Amino acid sequence: MQIVLLFPGQGSQKPGMGVDIAAAHPAAAQVFRTMDAALGVSLSELMFAGAEDELTRTLNAQPALLAHGAAVWAVVKDRLAPRVVAAAGHSLGEFSAYHAAGALGLAEALKLVRRRGELMYETGTTRPGTMAAILGDLKTPIEAVCAEASAAGVVVPANYNCPGQVVISGEVAGVEKAMELAKAAGARRAIKLNVSGAFHSPLVEPAVPGLQKALAMSAIGDARFPVYANVNGEPVTKARESAELLLRQLTSPVQWTLVVSKLAAAYPGALYVEMGPGSVLAGLVRKIAPAVQAMACGTAAEVEQLLAKVA
What we know:
The protein is an alpha/beta fold and 311 residues long. The protein folds into two domains: 3-125 and 203-309, Malonyl-Coenzyme A Acyl Carrier Protein, domain 2; 129-196, Alpha-Beta Plaits. It has helices at 19-24, 26-39, 43-49, 52-56, 58-80, 93-100, 106-126, 142-149, 172-184, 208-217, 239-249, 256-266, 280-288, 300-309, and strands spanning 3-7, 84-89, 130-135, 155-162, 165-170, 189-192, 227-228, 235-236, 271-275, 293-297. Strand 7 and strand 8 form a beta hairpin. The model has no long low-confidence stretch (mean pLDDT 97).
């Protein structure tokens, strides 16, 4: 059985994440010790037993999610690695995918995403914005809705999550106007998200130089298996292209529907495994490509289920 690895992005974090897998598996516990040492803070304590509002802060959520995915991968790697044919990650999760593919060392990946989170938070403070989920099928394309709403303030599509679910991002007035127009165009719901900035939009452009510097300082290597890029849905293995696309991803929409569609076309019989807390991506996969198998693997019990499935 072929395996496709999936890694979640910001929003999947939750208090208690990783605690049971760390207790059950020494390889996972070592990942969390490496994280604390690399970052110089006990982020594992925050993950295992900390306050939700502190864990949700961008500079904490991003390394926490990468570490959780890396911990699961460390536990199953010996058994699964020969079967893995590709990987993908949603926004922050794309960095996790490159770690699993051997292109980024653990400590380096953690420091890189911590810096990414800091830059994104700082930009959200200096140029405030927001994001909103638009649910349901629209009579007017979301791009046209955003273009019309931009008369009130910058707003663009940020995440194409699955058919009937798009996230928009931009200045507060623009997002609110787009929400209003989307409802008029048939949206079932338009929900403002609890985020600290207008991610994947032109408003985070000031963070680009800082992330470019951080990427240049990170030793990114070639990936052992292709990672499907958020920016264009294409498979990537070469280090230089990886770095370029990770930088472009900051201000570009996450093309998750395209990514999953291309993966499903290339690997229709594979098992798609979401590595991290929750099952958001596994659910999106089922909506985009109903014929493929998808499952979540973020707890000790789910690790056992996965290993039994591929035995």
